[in-house]
Design brief:
The chain folds into 2 domains: 3-183, 3-Layer(aba) Sandwich (Rossmann fold), CATH 3.40.50.300; 192-267, Histidine-containing Protein, Chain: A (2-Layer Sandwich), CATH 3.30.1340. Helix 1 packs across helix 9, helix 2 packs across helix 5 (66-83) and helix 5 runs antiparallel to helix 10. It is α/β, with parallel strands linked by helices. Helix content is 50%, strand content 18%. Strand 6 and strand 7 (232-239) form a beta hairpin. The radius of gyration is 22 Å and the shape is globular.
């Protein structure tokens, strides 16, 4: 099992390169449509659409936990798709979500501003409209990666291969990626990698459910979840009442893929404030 992730600037023909690589390998291509389809299967399509390579509104980022729910649900969708087998991923921070797996190849497709403009001009846009579209799209993608992962979208260190389309044809770019993927130096996914994906997917779903369930609560402190065995979640932290403790466990038991919950949440003792 192997995964190839693509990150691309607008106007680089990166999407076309990804499509042809997927076709050449016989791998499914997980683009926006495919990712949304999986999100719908998991019942989280609304959340995933909120972070379609865009940053949530400033008000939500400052005063709400909802953006974290959106992200955790997006993460779980990417992990679930990766569990299905060989695949090509297009955007959505997949190069960072799968960064620790030796069986994943991360590709960045870039080009100069003039090359990007020329691509859109060839598609029928005028120069001004093309420039606006490129700036808006690239700014949104960059801001999303910074918000979701705290890193620079364009940092070449985040990728295994950077393709500069100023001097490459789509065919040459595709053949370069295919050669790397087919190289014996590029390893297949191990059993440990697949188990890690299971853990990461379940953790993301559980964390999203727990965060969402705490909306509006005045006192929820340091709740964290971890997968301690297949389909078993452990939750730790502190809440204000026994009712909150029981509710957290109930929320986690309702998460898809959870069969057991080890509840290690402590109830904080509230010390009344004495007035003089």
């Amino acid at each position: 099992m192997k995964w190839i992730t693509f990150s691309r600037k607008m106007g680089t023909q990166g999407t076309e390169v990804a499509k042809r690589v997927a076709s050449g390998l016989g791998y499914p291509l997980y683009d926006t449509k495919a990712i949304n389809h999986m999100a719908e299967e998991l019942g989280v399509l609304g959340s995933v659409r909120k972070v379609d390579e865009k940053v949530p509104p400033l008000f939500q980022r400052l005063f709400s936990q909802r953006p974290m729910v959106y992200l955790e649900r997006l993460y779980s969708v990417i992990y679930e798709l990766a569990k299905r087998g060989d695949a090509v991923f297009l955007g959505r921070g997949s190069h960072l979500l799968l960064r620790d797996f030796p069986c994943a190849l991360h590709v960045r497709v870039t080009a100069s501003s003039e090359t990007c403009l020329r691509t859109l001009l060839d598609q029928g846009l005028n120069r001004e409209a093309a420039a606006r579209a490129i700036k808006r799209t690239d700014d949104e993608r960059s801001a999303f990666v910074q918000f979701a992962f705290g890193v620079d979208w364009a940092d070449p260190v985040r990728y295994d291969l950077v393709l500069n389309m100023d001097k490459l044809s789509v065919n040459l770019a595709v053949s370069t990626v295919l050669q790397m993927v087919r190289s014996p130096e590029f390893s297949e996914a191990s059993t440990e990698a697949l188990r890690a994906l299971d853990t990461m997917a379940l953790t993301s779903r559980a964390e999203a459910a727990l965060i969402e369930a705490t909306f509006g609560y005045e006192f929820v402190s340091s709740l964290s979840v971890s997968v301690v065995a297949p389909r078993k979640i452990q939750v730790r932290g502190t809440v204000g009442t026994q009712a909150r403790r029981a509710e957290a466990e109930q929320v986690l038991r309702a998460v898809k893929g959870v069969d057991a919950v080890e509840n290690l949440i402590e109830v904080a003792q509230v010390i009344p404030i004495q007035t003089v």
